[in-house]
Amino acid sequence: MSGISHLRAHLLQALCQMMCGQSRHRSTDPMFRQDFAKNAMTRNRFEILLRMLHFSNNEETEKSDRLHKIDKLVKTLNMNFQAHFIPNESLCVDESLIPFRGRIIFRQYLKQKRHKYGIKIFKLCTTPGYTFRLEIYAGKSSESKNNTPTNIVLNLCSNLLNKGHTMYTDNWYSSVDLADKLLDSETHLVGMLRKNRKRLPKEVTETKLKPGEYISRETQRGITVMKLRDKREVLLLSTKYSNILKESTSKRGIVTKNPKIILPYNQVKSAVDLSDQMSAYSTPLRKTVKWYRKHACEYSTTQYINCKCLSSI
Question: Can you give the residue ranges of the PiggyBac transposable element-derived protein domain (predicted)?
Fold first, then answer.
């Protein structure tokens, strides 16, 4: 078998692990037996190829670049993701944590995550959960990129500006400054807000609300800042929707009036969260030694989810 054929067989094995589970894809049980995986290559050969897997030439790369081990792979993936799919109007910026406990300078600790240690990646997604572009967070002291929330969003959607898209973000990214910059590029912004952001109207942030009440203010450019209270107070920002109320019916048949901002935001975010959930179910490998091999295996899951999204269109 040639080198290219070996690599293709290796990818086939990884895909088989995603769909069948790591312990089942070589099972002798008639219910789970997969002869094509066993015939492609032996388990020992698969593990040897995994240990030898590299994505860059160490002699040709810039060692000061923290991501030089996997940068070429990420660029190739982004190029392919964008070549085979035209996103709809709604875009969403999301972040994921690839579990990793090894020693690396840009490893992150996020106490709210199930896997608290890992490497953070930023993703630009669109419904129904398709990942259009991804970037790896290389740490605060990385010289190659400016990692402020505003610049992360602008970098991810750089080739989709001036096309009338709507960006949905959570409260770590959303700000009035980001809304201004996106409006300059004919792009809308809808998202949650933190009350300590700059340029927010005090009459909105400081007003105490009762359950069911809301208050909003709108600038001359059409940037709406709204605060509402259901179980707790929530701050929202939108350049697309104003403070118009819209009726919605719950599963129990209860009719309520909510600001028009809420429904599309929840729909887009839920589609992206579903993509992350599906990715967690089909992770190809539980353990790898090197962080860049771990990333490559996790990216194969992203490709698998993207293929499922394309097949459902």
Answer: 18-306
